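C-alpha coordinates please, single chain.
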Amino acid sequence: MFANIGWGEMLVLVVAGLVILGPERLPGAIRWTTNSIRQAREYLSGATSQLREDLGPEFDDLRQPLSELQKLRGMSPRAALTKHLLDGDDSFLTGNFDKPVSPGGPATNPTADAPPTPPAPTPVPPDVTPFDSDAT
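Here you go.
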Protein backbone atom coordinates (compact mmCIF):
# COMPACT_ATOMS: atom_id res chain seq x y z
CA MET A 1 0.00 0.00 0.00
CA PHE A 2 2.82 2.40 0.82
CA ALA A 3 5.11 1.34 -2.00
CA ASN A 4 5.92 4.94 -2.95
CA ILE A 5 6.84 6.04 0.58
CA GLY A 6 10.42 5.36 1.60
CA TRP A 7 12.01 5.24 5.02
CA GLY A 8 13.06 8.87 4.80
CA GLU A 9 9.50 10.03 4.21
CA MET A 10 8.25 7.81 7.05
CA LEU A 11 10.81 9.38 9.37
CA VAL A 12 9.69 12.87 8.34
CA LEU A 13 6.05 11.91 9.01
CA VAL A 14 6.90 10.53 12.46
CA VAL A 15 8.93 13.63 13.38
CA ALA A 16 6.15 15.91 12.11
CA GLY A 17 3.59 13.89 14.08
CA LEU A 18 5.80 14.11 17.16
CA VAL A 19 6.06 17.89 16.82
CA ILE A 20 2.37 18.43 16.02
CA LEU A 21 0.74 15.90 18.35
CA GLY A 22 3.36 15.64 21.05
CA PRO A 23 4.79 12.51 22.63
CA GLU A 24 1.62 11.83 24.65
CA ARG A 25 -0.86 11.66 21.76
CA LEU A 26 1.41 10.26 19.00
CA PRO A 27 1.11 6.54 19.96
CA GLY A 28 -2.68 6.85 20.11
CA ALA A 29 -2.76 8.55 16.69
CA ILE A 30 -0.58 5.82 15.17
CA ARG A 31 -2.80 3.14 16.73
CA TRP A 32 -5.95 4.85 15.39
CA THR A 33 -4.41 5.16 11.89
CA THR A 34 -3.37 1.50 11.75
CA ASN A 35 -6.79 0.37 12.98
CA SER A 36 -8.50 2.53 10.34
CA ILE A 37 -6.31 1.15 7.56
CA ARG A 38 -6.92 -2.41 8.77
CA GLN A 39 -10.68 -1.81 8.86
CA ALA A 40 -10.65 -0.31 5.35
CA ARG A 41 -8.76 -3.37 4.08
CA GLU A 42 -11.31 -5.67 5.70
CA TYR A 43 -14.16 -3.74 4.07
CA LEU A 44 -12.47 -3.97 0.68
CA SER A 45 -11.76 -7.68 0.99
CA GLY A 46 -15.37 -8.24 2.13
CA ALA A 47 -16.66 -6.30 -0.88
CA THR A 48 -14.40 -8.32 -3.19
CA SER A 49 -15.57 -11.63 -1.76
CA GLN A 50 -19.21 -10.51 -1.98
CA LEU A 51 -18.72 -9.55 -5.64
CA ARG A 52 -17.13 -12.94 -6.26
CA GLU A 53 -20.12 -14.69 -4.71
CA ASP A 54 -22.70 -12.54 -6.50
CA LEU A 55 -21.12 -12.55 -9.95
CA GLY A 56 -19.70 -16.06 -9.90
CA PRO A 57 -17.80 -16.91 -13.10
CA GLU A 58 -18.48 -13.45 -14.57
CA PHE A 59 -16.14 -12.02 -11.92
CA ASP A 60 -13.18 -13.71 -13.62
CA ASP A 61 -14.34 -12.29 -16.95
CA LEU A 62 -14.33 -8.86 -15.32
CA ARG A 63 -10.85 -9.33 -13.87
CA GLN A 64 -9.26 -10.42 -17.17
CA PRO A 65 -9.49 -6.98 -18.90
CA LEU A 66 -8.26 -5.36 -15.70
CA SER A 67 -5.20 -7.60 -15.63
CA GLU A 68 -4.51 -6.74 -19.29
CA LEU A 69 -4.80 -3.07 -18.41
CA GLN A 70 -2.31 -3.59 -15.59
CA LYS A 71 0.12 -5.16 -18.08
CA LEU A 72 -0.24 -2.12 -20.33
CA ARG A 73 0.48 0.22 -17.43
CA GLY A 74 3.86 -1.41 -17.00
CA MET A 75 4.81 -0.84 -20.64
CA SER A 76 6.65 2.19 -21.91
CA PRO A 77 4.95 4.18 -24.68
CA ARG A 78 7.47 2.83 -27.18
CA ALA A 79 6.83 -0.79 -26.15
CA ALA A 80 3.04 -0.31 -26.32
CA LEU A 81 3.30 1.26 -29.78
CA THR A 82 5.58 -1.51 -31.00
CA LYS A 83 3.40 -4.29 -29.61
CA HIS A 84 -0.04 -3.08 -30.68
CA LEU A 85 0.49 -0.99 -33.81
CA LEU A 86 3.63 -2.50 -35.32
CA ASP A 87 3.05 -6.16 -34.32
CA GLY A 88 6.32 -6.31 -32.40
CA ASP A 89 8.48 -5.05 -35.30
CA ASP A 90 10.38 -2.05 -33.97
CA SER A 91 12.56 -1.51 -37.05
CA PHE A 92 10.52 1.61 -37.82
CA LEU A 93 11.56 3.14 -34.50
CA THR A 94 15.16 1.89 -34.35
CA GLY A 95 16.04 2.40 -38.02
CA ASN A 96 17.36 -1.18 -38.30
CA PHE A 97 15.55 -2.19 -41.48
CA ASP A 98 17.87 -5.12 -42.27
CA LYS A 99 16.31 -7.16 -39.47
CA PRO A 100 13.65 -9.60 -40.71
CA VAL A 101 10.04 -9.29 -39.59
CA SER A 102 9.88 -12.96 -38.58
CA PRO A 103 12.29 -13.67 -35.71
CA GLY A 104 13.18 -17.17 -37.00
CA GLY A 105 14.14 -16.29 -40.58
CA PRO A 106 17.54 -15.13 -41.77
CA ALA A 107 18.12 -11.48 -42.51
CA THR A 108 17.75 -10.81 -46.20
CA ASN A 109 19.48 -7.88 -47.77
CA PRO A 110 18.14 -7.16 -51.31
CA THR A 111 21.16 -4.99 -52.16
CA ALA A 112 23.76 -7.67 -51.30
CA ASP A 113 24.34 -8.49 -54.99
CA ALA A 114 24.55 -4.86 -56.12
CA PRO A 115 27.95 -3.14 -56.15
CA PRO A 116 28.54 -0.74 -53.26
CA THR A 117 27.77 2.89 -54.01
CA PRO A 118 30.21 5.60 -53.00
CA PRO A 119 29.10 7.86 -50.15
CA ALA A 120 27.44 11.12 -51.12
CA PRO A 121 29.71 14.15 -50.96
CA THR A 122 29.14 16.35 -47.94
CA PRO A 123 27.87 19.83 -48.81
CA VAL A 124 30.34 22.63 -48.23
CA PRO A 125 28.88 25.59 -46.33
CA PRO A 126 29.16 28.97 -48.05
CA ASP A 127 31.77 31.45 -46.85
CA VAL A 128 29.23 34.18 -46.19
CA THR A 129 25.96 33.46 -44.45
CA PRO A 130 23.02 34.83 -46.44
CA PHE A 131 21.33 37.78 -44.77
CA ASP A 132 17.72 38.75 -45.32
CA SER A 133 16.90 42.20 -43.98
CA ASP A 134 13.15 41.63 -44.35
CA ALA A 135 13.22 38.54 -42.13
CA THR A 136 14.85 40.28 -39.16
